[in-house]
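User: Can you predict the 3D structure for this chain?
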Amino acid sequence: MPEAFADSDLEQLFKVLGLALGLGLLVGTQRERIHSRLAGVRTFALTTLLGALTAVLAHSFGGWVVAAGFLALTALMVVGNLAKMRSDGPVDPGVTTEVAMLLMFGVGAFLVVGPPSVAIVVGGIAAVLLHAKERLHSWIDGFGDRDFAAIMQFALLSLVILPVLPD
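Assistant: Here is the predicted structure, written as structure tokens:
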């Protein structure tokens, strides 16, 4: 049986759970705004809290708890999508909400094991990327073939070739 939490540990635990709740609400609000049928504000808040709680439990019971939570969440998404396809018929199987849910589960877990600032940045980036869908798509649609070739050359130089060159 795990030992009871000390007062300082409880304070840290409540901070982590508060951050998980806030980040889940942030991303969930964005998904709710676009009327995601799979998950909204409550589901994302609960998903991020689930990630945090499984990571807390992993300290006492082992990392399999986090893996079990991740697999359970994945199974719930599969069941939710199957139900959606049965009721709506053939639909576009976009996976953005699903990926965001898995990411937010990971963010919740990371809040427990890593620097909270990293989890906060990742959660914030997720919310911004989800919100900026239309702008990102129109920006990319505006690229011509030459623009895209230049971007790929820049990526090749800066991300592949320069890092392997000696100082």
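The helical segments are 7-33, 41-61, 64-88, 96-113, 116-131, 133-141, 145-164. The CA atoms of residues 10 and 102 lie 26 Å apart.
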